[in-house]
UniProtKB/TrEMBL annotation, chain A:
Residues 3-97 form the YCII-related domain. InterPro entries: Dimeric_a/b-barrel, YCII. This is YCII-related domain-containing protein. It holds the Pfam family YCII. Belongs to the YciI family. It comes from Streptosporangium brasiliense. PANTHER family: BLL0086 PROTEIN (PTHR35174:SF1), BLL7171 PROTEIN-RELATED (PTHR35174). It comes from the Bacteria.
Automatic annotation (TrEMBL), chain B:
The keyword Transcription regulation applies. Signal peptide: none annotated. Residues 120-170 form the RNA polymerase sigma factor 70 region 4 type domain. It comes from Streptosporangium brasiliense. Residues 21-80 form the RNA polymerase sigma-70 region domain. It holds the Pfam family DUF6596. This is RNA polymerase sigma factor. Residues 64-91 form a coiled coil.
Amino acid sequence: MTMRYILLLKTEENSALGAPPKELMDAIAKHGEEMTKAGVLLDTGGLAPSATGARIRLSGGKVTTTDGPFTETKELIASYALVQVKSKEEAVELAARFLRLHQEHWAGWEGESEVRKLLGPEDFALGFGQD
Amino acid sequence: MTASETDRAIDAVWRIESARLIAGLARIVRDVGTAEDLAQDALVAALEQWPREGIPGNPGAWLMAVAKRRAIDLLRRRQRLERKVEELGHELEIDGEGAAAGVEAAFDDDIEDDLLRLVFTACHPVLSAQARVALTLRMLGGLKTEEIARAFLVPESTVAQRVVRAKRTLAEARVPFEVPQGADRADRLSSVLEVIYLVFNEGYSATAGDDWMRPALCEDALRLGRVLAELMPEEPEVHGLVALMEIQASRSAARTGPSGEPVLLLDQDRARWDRLLIRRGLAALQRAEALGGDLGPYGLQAAIAACHARAHTPEETDWMRIAALYEALAGLVPSAVVELNRAVALSMAFGPATGLRLVDELAAEPSLKDYHLLPSVRGDLLAKLGRLDEAHAEFERAASLTRNGRERTLLLDRAAACAPAAGPGPLPDPRP
C-alpha cells in the first residue's frame, strides 16, 4: 500500500547566509526532476518569506490576524514536496537526499526536514493512531 | 537502529535505486538478466554490511559503487573488458584511459536512455504477458518476488520461475538492449503500455478473489506510468494512459462501501474523489492533446473518464460527448465491450429504449457470451423500462457469470430489488 507524505523543509528566515547559491538551486531543480522521473513526486512548491503571510489565531473566543514577518519563530517552512511512496523510510530517504544537497552546495546552512504522513483511506478504515 | 529498521531502510533505498541500477548495469553487460543478478548482488552486500556498519551517508551512491565494481569484475572474468571499453569509448566518444574508468563513465551517462531500454526489453513481445508483467514489476517497479506473488494471488515459486524463464527467453532470443525505432516502435510501445495497464486493471477491478480492488497494484502501475511519461514526453498515448490511470485511481476511495462492497460510478460520493489525482489526470490528458493529432485508445478512454471527473454531480455528466468518444474509440479498436459502453452512454443521453436496442444487437455477439456486464447492463435498462421480471433474470445471470465475490453480491442484490415495487437502480460503472 502506498502512502502520501509531505516533506517540509524548515529553516531560519533572514539567515546571515544570504540567498541560496545558484549551484544549490540547480541541484534542487535536478533533484525535483529526478523525483518526477522516478514517479514519486506529486507536487512541490517553495514558500515566500513570512513577510508576505499572516497568522490567524483563535484565542480567548476571538479571531485575530497578525501579518508577517514572524520574527519570533526560529524555523519556518521554506518549501514542501508531496510524494507518494511505499514506506515512511522511502520518504525519509528522499528528505535526507534533499538535505544532502544543501550540505553539498551551501556551506554553513542548517535546517531540518519534517516528514509527515497524509491521512489516507487506510487511516479512516483503521481509526487514527494505529501504525 | 534495529535490524528490522535497517531492513526497511534498505528496502526504501532499493525501491528508489533498483531500476536505475539494473538499467545502468544492463548497458554494460548487455543482458538484463545478468544485470539484475548483479544488482541483486549489490543488494545482498548492503543487507550484510549495513546492519553491521550502519547505513552509509549516501546509500544510493554506495549501492551504485558496489554494482559497478561487480560489473567490472564480471567483465574482467569474461576477459571482455578491453573490448567493451573500446566499444563504449567509440559509442560515447571518450578515451578509454583505464578500463574501469571507462565503464564508470558509461554507467553515469544517459541513464534515462538505459531506463527506456530496460522498459522495452522487459516488455518485449517475445515474452508472454504474465512474464512481461513479472519482469517489469521486478526490474522497474523494484518489487520483490514475494510482493508480486501476493499481488497476483499466485505462489511465490510461480513468480520466481516466470522471472527466471523470462530472463532465459530474452537471452536465448538475443533480444537487443535498445529502444526500438521506426515501424517497430509503435507496436513495441503498445506492448509496454499494455503491461502497465494490465497491472493497473488487475488492481482496479480484481478479476478473481474476494477483494474488489488491490490498490497496491494500481499504485505500482501509476508509478510506472508516471516514469514512462517523463521518459517519453513526446508520446501522446503514454500521457493518455497516465491520464486514464490517474483519473480512475482518483475514485478509489469512493468505489468501495463500508463493508468492502463495490459502489458504482453514478452512486459514488464525489466528495471522496481525489482532487489531486483528478487534476493530475486532466493535466496529463491536456499534454496528450497538446501533442496534436487524434487521441489514441488510451487517450480516448481518458477523455471519457475526464467527462465523469469534470461533472460535480451525476446529472451534470456530458453523456452526448461520452457517447461520441465511445464511437471514436469503437472506430479505433472495434470491440463489443466498447459498443456495450456506448449503449450505456446512449441510454443516458437519449433514454433506456435507445440503449436497449443496441444492447439487444450485442446479445448475439459470441465474444460477450460469458461477459457478466452484458446481462448486467441489459438488466439495468430493462428495470428502467419497468420490465422487472426480465431485469431480475438478467441480474441473476450476470451474478452467475462474474468471478468476483463482491460483484456477485451486488448483482444478486439488484436481482432481488427487481421485485415489482422496487424502483430503477443505477447503471454499472461505464468503463471498458
